Amino acid sequence: MNLAMGNKNVVLGLVVIIVFLTMSVHIERTASQHGFHAKAAAVTVDTKNTPDLLDDQIADVRKGPAYRTGGIYFTNHYAASYTPVPNNFYFTAYNMRLYAWMFALFGIAVGFIVGVQTQASLALRHWASWLAVAAVVLYPIRDVYFFWGRWMSQSFSGGWVSQVVYPLKFVGGTAMGLALLLALIVFLQGTGRAREEV
């Protein structure tokens, strides 16, 4: 393999895989984050068709055991059924890791191809290699930014930075598509020239 050509892609891909592997502890913990469990269903029925909320009746509940506090009896009410609320934070974290690993593996594949196919065009190999590097770095930035921001604060919204990281994700995806296309051309060109030499 050409040390000056494809090794940076392989090294960067392995680093990305290791980094997101170490984040797995935090990603798995999103399943138990406060505020993401299944929520009780409380069905509100407007019994008199008026805007007065006091006319409404809460259905789909059941009474619990009565208890006494300070000489007064109380009765707890519980939801009779539960509606699962999707944990979007959890699914987003899984997708973040999945796509980061996919792009890392694509980058390793591009690095291997441009490093092995030395008979192919040098310019195409350089472009494919550097586009893959840019893609592996740029594509996960948005997801990582929102993941750690949401991890620190559930009210995190992204702010003005989201206007920058969203285009970076698009640029990263486009760069990887071009890098894979160029790697395919490099592979075909290299194998064709190798066949001619034989």
Main sheet overview: 2 strands, antiparallel
> How are helices and strands ordered from N to C?
HHEEEEEEHHHH
Strand tally, please?
6
Mean pLDDT: 81
Summarize the structure.
With 198 residues, the chain is α+β, with helices and mostly antiparallel strands. 59% of the residues lie in helices and 15% in strands.
Topology readout:
Layout: H1 7-22, H2 24-29, E1 39-40, E2 43-46, E3 56-59, E4 61-69, E5 72-79, E6 82-83, H3 88-116, H4 122-138, H5 141-152, H6 162-197
Antiparallel strand pairs: 1-6, 2-3, 4-5
Helix pairs in contact: 1-3, 1-4, 3-4, 3-5, 3-6, 4-6
Describe the structure.
The structure is a single chain. Helix content is 59%, strand content 15%. By secondary structure, the protein is α+β, with helices and mostly antiparallel strands. The strands form 3 sheets. A two-stranded antiparallel ribbon has the order 1-6. Strand 4 (61-69) and strand 5 (72-79) form a beta hairpin. Helix 3 (88-116) packs antiparallel against helix 4 and helix 4 (122-138) packs antiparallel against helix 6 (162-197). It is elongated. The relative contact order is 0.16.
List keywords for this structure.
two-stranded antiparallel sheet, alpha+beta, 6 helices
